[in-house]
Amino acid sequence: MYLEIKGVSRQIKQEMVLNQVDLQMEKGKAYLLLGKNGAGKTMLMRAISGLIRLDEGEIWINGKRLWKEISFPESMGILLENPGFVKAYSGYENLMLLASIRKKVGEREVLQALEKVGLKENMHKKYRKYSLGMKQKLGIAAAIFEQPDLILLDEPTNALDEKSVQDCLKILQEEKERGALLLISSHNPEEFMDLADEMIYMDAGRIKKKEMKC
């Protein structure tokens, strides 16, 4: 298994936001996280990404234990609420800045990602002037442009129009076929039913049910 979550728990202000979570996930598959607000979906993504520490349990990614052998997943793309882009930079400049940090890809991959999400015509526009939909597209581009093994997406279709939703789904299908592991949280599960291989239902920080697609 590429991603193994074993007995993971986390308490914040007397609330168990993650409670004995156990999951196994493979590359080349898409997993859909479902549940109401506060169910623990975003917290689970934050734990997997290394953004929060655990009170109990272990997370193993590609055979390496998080917070022991690695501090963050070594090959990860992530879209969470309010991504930290530089407002005074353009979309292009923001992605080039990210590319310069990890030095895995260059301008060619940045331009390809911007074109895929439909931002190439606006790539030199300042981020602060982007609409909500354009900001979301840039977040998706940032999550995929390095072709990571693990892609975590929290509500990726928020603020997107119907055409952009379909473009997003096409991109995610391509990433899955490339061999990436996709973990997606959404309040609109019907959008992802063709993409998802397994649905994971959360409530009060626990895994309540898992359903494999027939």
UniProtKB/TrEMBL annotation:
Pfam families, sorted: ABC_tran
Statement: the UniProt record of this protein carries the keyword Mitochondrion: no
Family matches, as InterPro entries: AAA+_ATPase, ABC_transporter-like_ATP-bd, ABC_transporter-like_CS, ABC_Transporter_VariousFunc, P-loop_NTPase
Residue span(s) of domain ABC transporter: 3-212
GO MF term list: ATP binding; ATP hydrolysis activity
Keywords, alphabetical: ATP-binding, Nucleotide-binding, Transport
Name of this protein: ABC transporter ATP-binding protein
Lineage of the organism: Bacteria, Bacillati, Bacillota, Clostridia, Lachnospirales
